[in-house]
Amino acid sequence: MEIEVKIRIPNYENYKTLISVFAPFHVKTHNQHNNFFDGVSGELSDRRAVLRIRFYNDPPVTKCIICLKAKALLVNGVSRVEEDEEEIDPGVGQECVSDPTRLVDLAESSRIMKRVKDEFFGGKKDGLGFKGLGGFKNLRNVYEWKGLVIEVDESSYEFGTLYEIECESSEPEKAKELIEEFLKKNGVEYSDSVASKFAIFRAGKLP
Fold it and tell me: Are 1 and 82 within 8 A, CB to CB?
């Protein structure tokens, strides 16, 4: 179970202020390319699950992660979601993006794809089918601050840009309070996130 604080930053001006005040705590930056998939008959989405392949950094890609998420719940700026991740060869990931039917073959070597086959397709060997849903880019700046790992995201959709803070924590309410105090102190406007990045992508508009 992944538990994260998710706080939305309303616009570019506040985002730039946030990046500036967090600058002393910066540790790394990721260029992420997110691609999503479902069964051809909605086998995953019908059960509130989504399959994602994420590439890190612009070409040359340095890392590729396949991820299965399920049963997401976002309440009062705290997200709880079942998440399972696995690193795969970037070349194989690119093949799956270009041709989602390659995901069927990946079930032979990937723990996560074997889970998908067993849990969402009843373990059958024939009749598995996948479709690509598209995706979006995300620029992620990572900071270490007050014992927390803070991720500040600039997510670029075809219909607009989302700015968001994420912070994974076993004590989300405490972490959220610390972050909000920091934002108020530095004059950064914010609000609780009300939808996941994937939900926003599927809706086709910013909340």
Answer: yes
Tens of pLDDT, residues 158-195: 999 999 999 999 999 999 999 999 999 999 999 999 99
Fold (topology level) of 2-203: Hypothetical Protein Pfu-838710-001 (2.40.320)
**Beta strands 78-87; 26-39: pairing state:** unpaired
Question: Counting beta carbons within 10 angstroms of the beta carbon of residue 150, is it exposed (0 to 12), middle (13 to 18) or buried (19 or more)?
Answer: buried
Burial class of 161 by CB neighbour count within 10 A (0 to 12, 13 to 18, 19+): middle
Q: What gap in Å lies between CA 95 and CA 144, rounded to an integer?
A: 35
pLDDT in tens, 119-147: 998 866 666 799 999 999 999 999 999 99
- Are 70 and 116 a contacting pair, CB within 8 Å? no
Going by pLDDT thresholds of 50, 70 and 90, the confidence category of residue 7 is very high
10 close to 191: Cβ distance less than 8 angstroms: yes
Distance CA 29, CA 148 (A): 16
> Of the candidates 175, 187, 123, which has an alpha carbon nearest to the alpha carbon of residue 146?
175
Radius of gyration of the chain (CA): 18
CB 36 within 8 A of CB 52: yes
